[in-house]
TrEMBL record:
Residues 5-318 form the FAD-binding domain. It holds the Pfam family FAD_binding_3. The lineage of its organism: Bacteria, Bacillati, Actinomycetota, Actinomycetes, Catenulisporales. It comes from the Bacteria. InterPro entries: FAD-bd, FAD-dep_Monooxygenase_BioMet, FAD/NAD-bd_sf. This is FAD-dependent monooxygenase. GO terms for molecular function: FAD binding; monooxygenase activity.
Length: 346
């Protein structure tokens, strides 16, 4: 073994980091405060760069078996008129592979199965002690513990933390394929649909005033087909409701000290508008494990500096872009917004 690492948090970023470190020969322990791995949620969009990172982590084949391609999508207004097409085909041509969608439970299963191959990587389901105690006996502590990160707060204080955007988001899965994907932008609210797996459609909705499923259905009752049908076909007991938040202000570093690194939402939690939350966590894990494998425990400070240099500004640009897009999508000045969107190239 080349070093000992403690990963705090067993979400996408934490499990991916644990896989990478263990593959590099490190002894790894994962601590998760929940009683079991989170398996809720709907679809993650995994862009080509993140797909390549999953391949480097050794889980690319298992991931692709459960993912579905996302080839075409449009932005529409509530009447169904197309405002623009998303550049998925151009992205696919440039990258040589399509964007892929996978359900959160399936991605978690892929990562957990890869980690289980290494039987010496325990996942401890317990409320973690303070990072100072957790660090005892470990060369590296990885904070992968989400937007309310204990590791981040202990190392960087409370200046940066969760900030509410002011909107409620709802997500669900309808039991049929719509064949019509993308987003519909209205006044202060929007609705999106993507593939997720054969025979099902992933959907998400954002509206500031809807507090119940009935409110959501009412908010979109007069929008174009198949939006009302999608909502009517989804059991409200399966809907997931959450307050949209992001990490603010941006962190000055993803490596708070020579023995600590932050990944995923602990480092750059963002609104979901660009669909890159899982991607950035995977890219963080890949970059961190490559840096640590290259430099080793003896030069951990150098490794973490390299990780911060590769990922911080890139991830923070994505987070800023996602927050900016949210403002655009939810504006009440729809005529100006829609006119600008029509002028933009697909």
């Amino acid at each position: 073994m080349t070093g000992s690492a403690l990963v705090v948090g067993a979400g996408v970023g934490g499990l991916a980091t644990a896989i990478g470190l263990r593959s590099a020969g490190w002894a790894v322990t994962v601590v998760e405060r929940r009683a079991e791995l989170e398996r809720y949620g709907t679809a993650f969009a995994i862009h080509p760069a993140a797909q390549a990172a999953l391949e480097r982590l050794g889980v690319g084949a298992a991931f692709r078996e459960l993912a579905v391609p996302y080839h075409s999508a449009q932005i529409r207004d509530p009447r169904g008129r197309v405002l623009a097409s998303l550049p998925l085909e151009r992205m696919e041509k440039k990258a040589g592979r399509p964007e892929l969608l996978i359900s959160r439970p399936h991605l978690m299963e892929v990562l957990a199965a890869a980690l289980a191959v290494h039987g010496d990587v325990p996942i401890e389901f317990s409320e973690p002690a303070t990072p100072a105690v957790l660090a005892d006996g470990h060369d590296l502590v990885v904070g992968a513990d989400g937007i309310r990160s204990t590791v981040r707060e202990a190392t960087l204080g409370t200046r940066s933390g969760p900030r509410a955007v002011g909107d409620l988001a709802w997500i669900g899965v309808a039991g049929f394929e719509t064949g019509s994907y993308g987003e519909t932008w209205g006044k202060g609210r929007f609705f999106g649909m993507t593939p997720i797996e054969p025979g099902r459609t992933n959907w998400y909705a954002v509206t500031p005033a809807a507090a119940t499923p009935d409110d959501v259905r009412d908010a979109f009752a007069d929008w174009h087909d198949p939006i009302p049908r999608v909502l009517a076909a989804t059991d409200p007991d399966t809907w997931i409701r959450y307050e949209m938040r992001h990490l603010y202000p941006a962190l000055p570093t993803f490596a708070p000290n020579p023995a600590t690194a932050l990944v995923g939402d602990a480092a750059h939690a963002m609104t979901p508008n660009l669909g890159q939350g899982a991607c950035t966590a995977i890219l963080d894990a890949d970059a961190l494990t490559r840096a640590v494998a290259t430099h080793g425990p003896a030069a951990l400070k150098t490794a973490l500096r390299a990780y911060d240099s590769e990922r911080r500004r890139a991830a923070q640009r994505v987070a800023f872009g996602s927050r900016t897009l949210h403002r655009l999508v939810t504006t009440r000045h729809t005529h100006l917004r829609n006119g600008l969107i029509r002028l933009m190239p697909s």
